[in-house]
């Protein structure tokens, strides 16, 4: 128990306190340790953690092959891919003019070839695949069910159109007309009176048209309805207000969790 | 009328593979037949541009590349454009990477932009690739306190002591400006927390679109001097420096795809209301 | 240049194999997915080894500066060098470091981490993990409190001292925007406060908070779409490049072959009786 539990908790507490004090205390020994060597140790251990992950993966996939579990044939490709990458990384350099170590990104090496023609298309396409699912989700799941969903939808659409060049071409007057129709729906729901709704919509459209003729239909006026400007305002003000609330919430949460780790209250890293 | 309603409701049940096909086509076709839509810079992009333009000549700029192939289309164009500008204005570029993939991105940048377009700039005097070091925020902390302890050699195995432009560069405070091209953790957020905020060295950033909202409160509050947001952000920066690049060429496809997705949302909702009306009726 | 052309064909195959998932889950996709998993693990291992372990750990344990062939310590090194000269080149590792034997400590913790792959020694990883957890906690406690909480409070403060500040402006600072930011931030934060039931005035303010959060989520959605489409553009640009005559039109050929294979498999599936 001492080795498995007490020591890890003591390590977290000691290293955590030292690192935290490193920010506030001007004691050269602590500062030197925290800012130089301690961070280096962290970097080294982070690397070992990656090796451990790779080993575990290899273990899992090999077991799958040996026990002939469902889909074991595919695991051969996983193990094969791993072995190929390790050969490129440690055995065959491919370009003798480049030193070991620099070979990972050096021109003409096998490792760089692997990165360019295998790792790149695989990882990039995995991410790009999501474009299709986002599109499908917007068709199937993005529904105006209530006021909150409407806000989300309108803000999303304004950002989507306003931030790309096509937004520049969409006239503020067109957006103004749409806005009047949209408010018309709200008026209709509020008063449940067709005459009031009709009066509002026709009046609004008429006034907008008169204003348009009077001003000469400039594409970017009135600025409030010009998508590139409107999106910039949404992006910088109401969006930031929401994002800042989330940021502060997360910030407080991480601060509290970190303190719990340092004080030994939170022990999930030893499975408790 | 009923026929139309039925048709709309049938479209609502459309196999999603048709949607996939439409998206593929609307992205692909504008790549072959560009429309040349105009580009207008947003305020946050303009702020990055102003900050870079106002740097003193021969400023030491730390450019950190925290992205890989998966987000390359968004971040590579902005890094290309930024480096073009920095070298044109005779600044010194120091490249670090918090992601292993970043080192490949930096090599690609050197090969395709620096060596090709700026043959008079030399490695070690005008730009240097220090390379990747694992450890995320701990690496940033290391750069802030003593960059030489972390980087004794650069990505090409050259001793840092023998690199001329590394003279008088010992810690983060020795830099005049930081630009983080970031696709997530570790990235812009960590640079703000552990480098820029504690030392006061100004920084700007370019991020993937997804990360924008995570960083915007910093930008609005002035902790970060502007942000290039995704591929459109890169295109805007290209427009500001007057050198159209990969970002600009993708903007037509981006625009059309956005319009189509907005249409999807509208159609989806119309079908939803029709369905709901039908359900109420029976 | 043949390596490049072969590479292009492989890249096209892997790209299209992953895209083939859009049609349905199939063998091409599964193969590509598994190759991705394997290659990634090997790639990360190599990168972390050559950028940190070899230069900054081994480089500090056996620096070439203090190389002494007669010493016991470098005797171990020479034995390692005999096994592998690429990692342990003759005469010590020259990465500009002095000898720091204290680095045996993280080395030992790292080795313990690796040994934890054996089920009986699984707890061995705990010490190394504890070190990283402790350090991350110490760094983050300050970083997040300073930049994400305190700085944000400061950023939200209203500035009434500037006489030139307009009441309303769409772009740039204004009284209206500052007040809106403050109201939005506070109400948004109150929404996250769950220790009190959200009703009455408190509930109404929290409701306003939700509206701001929704605008923010909407913007996030817009950005998510934007990002994904950009990535898709990037993939298509690569596929178009690889369809060049220089690469012997790799894209179109691989596409045709893959469509034929998937079509044939669908045809066979249709013909065969369904499993009951």
Keywords:
heterotrimer; A: 272 residues; mainly alpha; 2 domains; 77% helix; elongated; C: 276 residues; 8 helices; 69% helix; 0% strand
Write a structural description.
The complex is a heterotrimer of chains A (272), B (282) and C (276). Chain A has 272 residues and is mostly helical. Chain A folds into two domains: 2-137, no CATH class; 146-236, no CATH class. In chain A, 77% of the residues lie in helices and 0% in strands. Chain A has helices at residues 2-24, 28-66, 72-91, 110-140, 147-162, 166-169, 172-191, 194-215, 227-236, 238-262. In chain A, helix 2 packs across helix 3 (72-91). The model of chain A has no long low-confidence stretch (mean pLDDT 91). Chain B has helices at 2-12, 16-32, 43-53, 72-88, 100-117, 137-150, 188-199, 212-220, 230-241, 246-281, and strands at 60-66, 92-97, 127-132, 177-182, 203-207, 227-229. With 282 residues, chain B is α/β, with parallel strands linked by helices. Chain B is 56% helix and 12% strand. Chain B is built from ten helices and six strands. In chain B, helix 6 (137-150) crosses helix 7 (188-199). In chain B, strands 3-2-1-4-5-6 form a six-stranded parallel beta sheet, with helices on both faces. Chain C is mostly helical. Chain C is built from eight helices and no strands. Chain C has helices at residues 2-19, 27-61, 72-83, 104-115, 125-156, 175-191, 200-242, 250-271. Chain C is extended. Chain C starts with a helix and ends in a 5-residue tail after the last helix. The model of chain C has no long low-confidence stretch (mean pLDDT 91). The chains are: A mainly alpha (272), B alpha/beta (282), C mainly alpha (276). At the A-C interface, helix 1, helix 2, helix 3, helix 4 and helix 5 of A face helix 1, helix 2, helix 4, helix 5 and helix 6 of C.
